Amino acid sequence: MTQTPLLSVSGLSVRYGSNARALDDVTFDVERGSMVAVVGESGSGKSTTALSIIGLLGRSAHVESGSIRYDGTELTSLDDRALRRLRGNAIGFVPQDPTVSLDPTQRIGAQIAEVLEIHGRARRTEAAARAVEILRAVGLTEPERRARQYPHELSGGMRQRVLIGMAWACEPQLIIADEPTSALDVTVQRQVLDRLDTLRLDRGTAILLVTHDLAVAADRADHLVVMSEGRVVEQGPTDAVLGDPQHEYTKKLLSTVPSEKAAFALGSARSATNADPIVVAESLVKKFDAVDPAGGRTRVTAVDDVSFSIGRGRTFALVGESGSGKSTTARLITNLDSPTSGTVTFDGTDTGALGAGELRLLRRRFQLIQQNPYSSLSPRWSLAKIIEEPLRAFGVGSRTERAARSRELLDQVGLPSSFASRRAGELSGGQRQRVAIARALALRPDLIVCDEPISALDVSVQAQILDLLAELQRELEVSYLFISHDLSVVRLIADDVAVMQAGRIVEHGPVADVFDSPAHEYTAALIDAIPGRRTSTGTVHGSTFRG
Predict the structure, then answer these.
(1) Beta bridge partners of 236
(2) Which listed residue, 59, 83, 162, 372, has the most CB atoms within 10 A of its CB?
């Protein structure tokens, strides 16, 4: 007798207000103890599908037709009270953005304990101890200390691990994970996915994984559901879909995956000469005050004796786990923070010796592209005003000249000048990141710090942004400090790479040398953790999921 699926979605159609359907006849099953991955570009309906299952679509949306059955229960007919009993208890949910998903006024341990208390899984004293165990299980160091901290005191990757811990705290039968590892470095990503696999194999927990990372899907999922424009265009066993895709859209997605072949071709075209350095960091140290596990004050070294240089017109990558010191180092390079000791020299000038006025003038020459295009652009301003902001701040040009410059920049990043009057909320994630790049280019900088600039984007848009960054570097000879946890992307775009662990650089050199012959065991562990290595052939549709 065939076992009934734990989750069965059949003919699901969802509409937002009077607009066109967001989902149209979506059908798939999630078997007990299986992992099903839903993949597709931004706007394909992945997250809407996940939110429909747990009744979190919002007031403007409604299920127009279809069925969602969980363990024999029709979810579309349940009231809010019944759905609340299921959420967190029988069905766990991991949202994508930890910045807005955690209460900034509560300590981390209290937020996890609250889940256990609400669902009657532990009393208050037991819940606090259990919260520490959960933090340890999802790979957080010093879990007792983390439990006492607030969300703003943790890195983005740490916050995401907290959300994952909250989702499986009550050991639900189904976990819906909406891009749960997009903010995580490869080793922590592997730890988190291994934990989900343990739940799946040991306790029969089923996983519905929404992801834009095809390498993760190839590694982990039993079944793949490919979505485009609100419809399922292809589905089946993961090896079958990725090994022999039938739909043109699936083939298009796979063609955009970073591959060793592409990295080799790009790397062979790079200049092998040593360019003059635009930035030289020497013996940088940064220490912060922090809270110890007992609640007392302590001193933490975030950056410890870090030295490197960035050549003109070249890309220098910093990689390492969350908390390794990458972003702190970038803040020291751009003088958004001052080192405890050490120096940063920009184009021959010691930035630490400059006065406030001199430093402000120098800051025209380095700019930042932030990780999340959804939070880095003002929702109230037009795109023209956003792009012109650095020009206004430094008093560059007249109003007419600034408007002309914004249109020129829109064209340079591949957006029509008619977008100038639009607002960020009218754009896709990839379009927003193009606007962020245009803003960074406004003052014609010599250095752009790219802090995880594509981690929030799906694979096809990632490819577009990487191509754009490479093209701009060729045209403008701009240098990049590229911070990323995605080693496949680093292999593709970087000339030189430094590997950071616990605030120190443990390995440093040309990207091909470091990736092909890692000298440090930590570097080797990072490379070994790159997703996609679990596939039976190692390749999917001509792309190798390796660094």
Answers:
(1) 224
(2) 162
Distance of CA 405 to the CA centre of its chain: 31
**Mean pLDDT value of segment 436-461:** 87
Contact 522, 506 (CB under 8 A): yes
- 355 Cβ contact list (under 8 Å, min separation 6): none
Cβ of 386: how many Cβ atoms within 10 Å?
23
CB 97 within 8 A of CB 373: no
Measure the CA–CA gap between 211 and 7, rounded to whole angstroms. 18
Which amino acid, one-letter code, is at 123? R
pLDDT at 202: 80
For strand 35-39 and strand 206-210, is the pairing parallel, antiparallel, or unpaired?
parallel
Cβ–Cβ contacts within 10 Å for residue 204, how many? Answer: 12
Q: Answer whether 391's CB lies under 8 Å from 405's CB.
A: yes
Please give the pLDDT value at position 259: 53
> What is the DSSP secondary-structure string of 349-394?
EEGGG--HHHHHHHGGGEEEE-S-TTTSS-SSSBHHHHHHHHHHHT
Burial class (CB in 10 A: 0-12, 13-18, 19+), 290: middle
Q: Residue with structure tokens 């957006």?
A: 415
Give the model's pLDDT for residue 193: 83
Q: Just give the CATH number of 262-367+447-536.
A: 3.40.50.300
Is residue 199 pLDDT above 70, yes or no? Answer: yes
Banded pLDDT at 321 (limits 50, 70, 90)? confident
Report helix, strand or coil for 30: strand
Q: Is 299 exposed, middle or buried (0-12, 13-18, 19+ CB in 10 A)?
A: exposed
pLDDT at 130 over 60: yes
pLDDT tens digits, 245-262: 999 999 988 887 765 444
**Where are the alpha helices (H) located in 363-498, listed in sequence order?**
383-393, 399-412, 429-441, 459-476, 487-493
CATH 3.40.50.300 domain locations along the chain: 7-255, 262-367+447-536
In single-letter form, the type of residue at position 245 comes to P
Place of tokens 């003059």: 276
Hey, what CATH class is 7-255 in? alpha beta
Task: Tell me the H-state helices in 184-247.
Answer: 186-203, 214-220, 238-243
DSSP for residue 222 = S
What pLDDT, in 10s, does the model give residues 42-94?
Answer: 778 898 999 999 999 877 788 999 999 999 999 999 999 999 989 989 999 99
Those residues with Cβ within 8 angstroms of residue 410's Cβ, 6 or more apart along the chain or in another chain: 383, 387, 416, 417, 419, 420, 435, 438
> Phi and psi dihedrals of 86, rounded to 5?
-80, -40
